[in-house]
Amino acid sequence: MDGTRVLRSQSSTCAVSRRSQLSGDILLKPRDDLPETFERTSIRTIDWAGVDFAKESRWRNGAIRQDSIQQQFIAHLEDGLASFIIDDDDSGESADVVSIEETSDTIIVTLWHCKYAGGATAGQRADDLYVVCGQAQKSTNGLGASKIL
User: In this structure, are residues 109 and 46 in contact, taking their beta carbons and an 8 Å threshold?
Assistant: First the structure.
């Protein structure tokens, strides 16, 4: 069997070069050379003083928990450019918090996920990152639904 027939008959994908993949006999390459990291100057930090990292949700029994992660994050968004902030913390939601920013010619919708921390203080824990990334990935399951509308 020649190489082309083998590639077509197999459903494997392999990395060929930097960010390129070979899927069957199709070479997948990125269109643009994107940066591999964020610019450090674009990363903003939030003051988490007074926040209980075990309290994720803003609401409990009909009352706002001032020391929760979501309350602190929503307060942070209120100091920014968002025209609307939606607290959508519930099971199956697209995000815990949705912010909508209006400019003269654009509407920017940002979906935010907040998760409790794996420790009592802010830290650099990979497990915390895995948890929030997993939640964000699960939230994308409904994105394909627009195709059936």
Answer: no
Q: Using alpha carbons, select from 41, 58, 44 the residue that is nearest to residue 97.
A: 58
7 phi/psi in degrees, rounded to 5: -60, -40
In a domain, 11, yes or no: no
CB atoms closer than 10 angstroms to residue 71: 19
53 part of a folded domain: yes
- Within a domain: residue 25? no
Angle at 125 between CA 123 and CA 129, to 5 degrees: 115
- In total, how many domains does the chain have? 1
Condensed to tens digits (0 to 9), the pLDDT of residues 112-126 reads: 888 888 887 777 788
C-alpha of 26 from chain center = 29
**Domain with 132 in it:** 44-148
With 0.90 as the threshold, say if the pTM is over it.
Answer: no
